[in-house]
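Re: [ENG-882] Designed sequences occasionally contain unexpected residues at chain ends

Forwarding the minimal case from QA. Structure tokens:
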């Protein structure tokens, strides 16, 4: 899907390029028919769908049109009258149906553009006003250039800056006088230089007409700044390349928001894995099997709960016996939790990474993974102390619930009858009601009717596919309204089938409101870019 901001920037560049190229055509000493034929060829590339556009100029009975011209029902026209009474009209047709816009399939900016082209033709023909019209056009361009809400610069074919507006200089942290003469490579992050050079070569070769990339530039103080940059090439009337137009927007705030959201999703995913491991361990110890089989079954579930399961192995040692995953070997990246039973029997859980990973709180291991392995060690200690008796099960479940109750998220579990069997106390902060009142009731009772329908649809998907679902929504609870992020995760039994669903709901109201502020700022920028040049 196209980014709407990038798309709009690209359209404005095409329009500016068309106006600029048309003005250059009028400087030639060709005959009037030659000039008008050349102008008509410039028009289709400036419209939103150039491959389906055709154009015609009619002046005082003379007709000039593109090779593919034919009349259709999708038409946009602008007429003009010269001072000596000659009637003219510019027609742009789409040769096939396109989605509706402001004027049929045409953009509001294309109405401004075709009107501007008609006005330019009139000015050209009004010889007495040519000089004043050109001066006025230059002043309009200069004002737009200098006061644009996005950074704009002209870059020579040698890569040196020819001209730059104030916004561009503000983004990269240079004085405008310092920019002129520098090369664009001087401010481009070294990781992006090669990519941008490849795009420039394609422009020069005529393989593309414009390109947009997100890149990192280096400010004068050495700090990086994320920008969205759209580039087009201005050519001489002869077709020879002249210079590049760079349009730049600072997207650092959006990038930060994206990183925060990515971290949120990652953190929630890790917490879900950890809670699932605890829940699964409690399920395993309830089975009527020998202790050795249960310990082996538990150890095989451990790697999936760590941050890098593909390079994780584990073992449990108890009473001189070792229970381990098939790929377990001792490495330098180890996390261990020991436990001791009441009858002085010692045991330990060990999780290892088979390859080096980035450092975290404990070597390559997360703080939460230390909490998890300690909690699992306590579960094993309780289970082994009471020989899988009812007391061990109750204590293990209490440990799991303690972990869920300590979380700053709403945590609930739905059984196969779609009823709530668990809802932690933090849920009160989300829904504003006593969570104990919902146990044994349908899960949909947690939400208003319209929100409950969406949740039930997501729950059916998880039951059917066995795959987790993540979504964000704005919900109006009786006592408050807020944005939440929800993970619905299948809790699977030994045979791999889904036995229950776990839901984790996080309050993301502050982040969403920050994102809305960024979107509103981008809309204000978009309004500025729509101002005719």
């Amino acid at each position: 899907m196209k980014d709407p901001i990038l798309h709009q920037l690209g359209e404005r560049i095409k329009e500016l390029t068309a106006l600029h190229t048309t003005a250059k055509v009028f400087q030639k000493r060709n005959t009037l028919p030659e000039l008008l034929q050349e102008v008509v060829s410039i028009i289709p590339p400036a419209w939103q769908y150039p491959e389906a556009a055709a154009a015609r100029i009619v002046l005082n009975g003379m007709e000039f049109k593109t090779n593919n011209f034919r009349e259709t029902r999708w038409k946009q026209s602008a007429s003009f009258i010269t001072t000596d009474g000659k009637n003219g009209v510019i027609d742009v047709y789409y040769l096939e149906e396109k989605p509706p816009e402001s004027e049929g399939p045409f953009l509001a900016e294309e109405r401004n553009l075709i009107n501007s082209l008609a006005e330019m033709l009139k000015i050209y023909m009004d010889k007495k006003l040519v000089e004043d019209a050109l001066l006025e056009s230059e002043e309009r361009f200069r004002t737009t250039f200098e006061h644009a809400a996005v950074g704009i610069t002209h870059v020579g074919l040698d890569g040196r800056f020819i001209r730059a507006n104030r916004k561009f200089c503000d983004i990269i942290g240079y004085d405008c006088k310092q920019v002129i003469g520098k090369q664009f490579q001087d401010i481009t992050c070294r990781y992006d230089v090669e990519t941008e050079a490849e795009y420039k070569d394609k422009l020069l070769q005529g393989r593309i007409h414009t390109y947009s990339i997100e890149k990192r530039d280096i400010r004068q103080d050495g700090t990086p700044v994320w920008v969205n940059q759209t580039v087009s090439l201005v050519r001489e009337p002869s077709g020879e390349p002249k210079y590049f137009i760079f349009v730049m927007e600072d997207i650092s705030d959006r990038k930060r928001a994206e990183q925060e959201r990515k971290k949120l999703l990652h953190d929630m995913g890790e917490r879900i894995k950890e809670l699932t491991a605890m829940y699964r361990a409690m399920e395993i110890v309830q089975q009527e099997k020998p202790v050795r089989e249960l310990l082996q079954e538990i150890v095989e579930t451990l790697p999936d709960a760590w941050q890098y399961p593909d390079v994780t192995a584990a073992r449990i040692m108890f009473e001189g016996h070792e229970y381990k995953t098939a790929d377990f070997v001792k490495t330098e990246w180890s996390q261990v939790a020991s436990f001791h039973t009441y009858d002085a029997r010692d045991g330990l859980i060990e999780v290892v990474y088979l390859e080096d990973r980035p450092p975290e709180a404990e070597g390559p291991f997360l703080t939460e993974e230390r909490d998890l392995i300690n909690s699992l060690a306590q579960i094993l200690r309780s289970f082994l102390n009471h020989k899988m008796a009812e007391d061990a099960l109750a204590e293990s479940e209490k440990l799991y619930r303690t972990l869920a109750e300590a979380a700053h998220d709403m945590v609930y579990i739905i059984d196969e009858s779609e009823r709530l069997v668990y809802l932690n106390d933090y849920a009160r902060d989300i829904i504003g009601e006593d969570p104990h009142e919902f146990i044994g009731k349908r899960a949909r009772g947690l939400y208003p009717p319209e929100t409950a329908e969406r949740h039930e649809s997501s729950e059916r998907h998880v039951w059917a596919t066995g795959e987790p679902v993540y979504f964000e929504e704005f919900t109006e609870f009786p006592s408050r309204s807020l944005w939440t992020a929800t993970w619905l995760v299948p809790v699977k039994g030994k045979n791999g089938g889904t036995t229950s669903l776990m839901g984790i709901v996080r309050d993301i109201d502050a982040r969403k409101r920050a994102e809305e502020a960024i979107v509103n700022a981008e809309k204000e920028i978009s309004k500025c870019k729509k101002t005719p040049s």
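QA comment: On inspection the terminal residues look reasonable. The longest strand covers residues 224-235. Proposing we downgrade this to a documentation issue.
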